[in-house]
Amino acid sequence: MKIYEKAPAKINLMLDVLHKRPDGFHEVEMVMTMIDLADRLEMSDQPRDTIMITSQAGYIPLDEKNLAFQAAKLVKDRYGVRKGVHIHLDKKIPVAAGLAGGSSDAAATLRGLNRLWGLNMPLEEMLSFGAELGSDVPFCITGGTALATGRGEVLTEIPDPPQCWVLVAKPPINVSTGEVYGKLRSEHIASHPSSKNMVAALQAGSFTEMCNNLGNVLEEVTLKLHPEVQQLKNAMLRLGADGALMSGSGPTVFGLVSKESKVARIYNGLRGFCKEVYAVRLLT
Ligand SMILES: C[C@@](CO)(OP(=O)(O)O)[C@H](O)COP(=O)(O)OP(=O)(O)OC[C@H]1O[C@@H](n2ccc(N)nc2=O)[C@H](O)[C@@H]1O
Ligand SMILES: Nc1ncnc2c1ncn2[C@@H]1O[C@H](COP(=O)(O)OP(=O)(O)O)[C@@H](O)[C@H]1O
């Protein structure tokens, strides 16, 4: 049998860090939503009792470091499954970009193996497996639009944003999420974006208020380390995006655009700055 799952990328419309916790993670408040840029996973039975990962992308680990592998191993161990699986990852989401590509692959693996192996896994259990795999995995399981608190795994569903275009630009820089959180001095954050205002904007269905309330405190770290990310954000706005922000720990910058007539110009302008540019819709 073969199972297919789509693993969409996320963007953070706002991201605030409250403080560092005794367990080393940071307490956050984030508003997250999905975009129509997705990896595709194909899962099929394997004669041998092993987990095999393949991908057309030459630049991701295919062993136990792969988050899809880790998700499959967790399910196999906890449910005592004595079957093998071959997971093929058709990667479309830029890697180490702040778009949760690996986390979304892990979430899609949990969903897919639940079907392939007929496990009837309760959603609560899937979410708890997700939290063991990474802070962003639970959101990638539920999808939609959510206010995420705790270390990112405590989710409250909120209304989807008004539909718009999302210009996604990933500069050729590698950023480590752990390093960015590690360099943040939460007591010195100059200004905190408001989750309350962002949630209110989405509840009101206001595109303008959504753009006015974009904010990400991790920009303070990544933009200082990599000034070209600030330049990309400036270019996004100069070319006509209604709002622009770095996603997660970066380095991807996204721009929100309400008028379709502006999209081609912004896309072409950004291509002058970086190779990896996408024009997609929100996944509402
Ligand atoms: C910043 C965000 C925003 O959505 O996304 P990305 O930029 O990774 O896409 C997330 O908080 C990232 O979530 P995720 O990528 O799942 O992180 P994890 O694997 O759980 O953690 C990686 C490392 O980041 C740090 N970390 C992560 C989450 C958190 N709330 N506090 C932290 O301090 C820890 O040092 C941890 O070892
Ligand atoms: N299935 C996967 N897809 C992409 N990256 C993966 C995957 N599994 C493990 N990784 C590793 O996880 C790291 C973070 O990748 P990714 O999830 O794409 O970024 P981010 O957390 O910034 O959104 C990368 O260094 C990559 O090597």
UniProtKB/TrEMBL annotation:
The keyword Calcium does not apply. Belongs to the GHMP kinase family. IspE subfamily. Catalyzes the phosphorylation of the position 2 hydroxy group of 4-diphosphocytidyl-2C-methyl-D-erythritol. Residues 66-144 form the GHMP kinase N-terminal domain. ATP binds at residues 94-104. The keyword Nucleus does not apply. This is 4-diphosphocytidyl-2-C-methyl-D-erythritol kinase. Pathway: Isoprenoid biosynthesis; isopentenyl diphosphate biosynthesis via DXP pathway; isopentenyl diphosphate from 1-deoxy-D-xylulose 5-phosphate: step 3/6. One of its GO terms (molecular function) is ATP binding. It holds the Pfam family GHMP_kinases_C. Signal peptide: none annotated. It comes from Paenibacillus lemnae. Residues 198-274 form the GHMP kinase C-terminal domain. It is an enzyme of class 2 (transferase). It catalyses: 4-CDP-2-C-methyl-D-erythritol + ATP = 4-CDP-2-C-methyl-D-erythritol 2-phosphate + ADP + H(+). The active site is at residues 10, 136. Its EC number is 2.7.1.148. Keywords: ATP-binding, Isoprene biosynthesis, Kinase, Nucleotide-binding, Transferase. InterPro entries: GHMP_kinase_C_dom, GHMP_kinase_C_sf, GHMP_kinase_N_dom, IspE, Ribosomal_Su5_D2-typ_SF, Ribsml_uS5_D2-typ_fold_subgr. It comes from the Bacteria. One of its GO terms (biological process) is terpenoid biosynthetic process.
